[in-house]
Write a structure and sequence with these properties.
alpha/beta; Rossmann fold; 5-stranded parallel beta sheet; 5 strands; 40% helix
Amino acid sequence: MRRDVHILLVEDDIIDVKTVKRAFKENKIINPLRITSNGEEALKYLRRQGKYSNPEDSPRPSIILLDLNMPVMNGVEFLKAIRADEDLKSLTVIVLTTSKEENDRVESYKLNVAGYIIKPVEFEKFVEAVKVIDLYWSLNELP
């Protein structure tokens, strides 16, 4: 990815956060990665509320990697909230989840996600999935 692309990972599982970080390292992805643990916290980050009020510490992400199954506010609720917000509705979101539910996939695409990726269980396959994401966004023009 281009170096100026900031990424927000919305993920509640600490092991999955570590796996994403390891996969980034394996793929030599050096883009700034910020992490929030649920949709509500991610909204605060995006709206620069509370501990995220400093724009230096909470830059607007170019890409959001979103888990669906989270406490407080799940991924679909988060997607509905940002798509209803005039300032956030155009953000690029890629769902990165364990959910194989057809309903989750359909609902996510209705809410204009850029992709829906089921997290591979094997680390090597996870690294490959992240490599594909990186390659795609390296070629893609972001707003």
